[in-house]
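Pasting as-is:
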Amino acid sequence: MTKQLVLAAVIATTSLASGSVLAMKNESTVSEYKPSISNFISPYISSVGMGNGLDGNGLGIRLGYKLSDNWGVVGDASFYDVDGNLTENGKKLETDYDGWMASIGPSYYINERLSVFATIGIAQLTGANYTYGDPYTVKMFNPEIHQLVDVTTRDKENLNTTANKNVVVGLGINYALGDYYVINAAYKRFSTDITMSSGNNTQAVDVFEVGFGFRF
């Protein structure tokens, strides 16, 4: 009976010791992993304002990497569409524009969670504005009824195409929400020429971006 009690006591003591060691190991493992602001990835949405009735929106991705205690690098790329009520000499024009932007620049870390950044890059705008001519009727084959039918249509007139690249500059701020998430905002600006019937029209473009992402 005494041997059984001693054996039970040894087993209990061993189990408690093993459990304590395992718990300490798990706590040590958890505390060792701590995400840092050094890297982040953040999708973002953008609002594009071009004036003269043109505006749009876009989607992009931003990456950040910390190089030293206070300095890092930020890069981003996005696509956007622009539409609106462009007018010339009081006449409304149809519009179809889109583009992309890509930029890179330094970031400065104010503390472990807060950083500011400045970027420079390229912004491309392509598309056209145009008017529609008078409607007219043409004969077209309708496959559903297998015969020719009258269709009213209008041709594009006064077509002015635009395709150019310009320098875009920006400023932004990035803030870490706890250990895993970040939010950021940026403002960018560039100027672009839009071809009109009366000549080129220089437009100042304002871009506002807001993003939410992850630290890793």
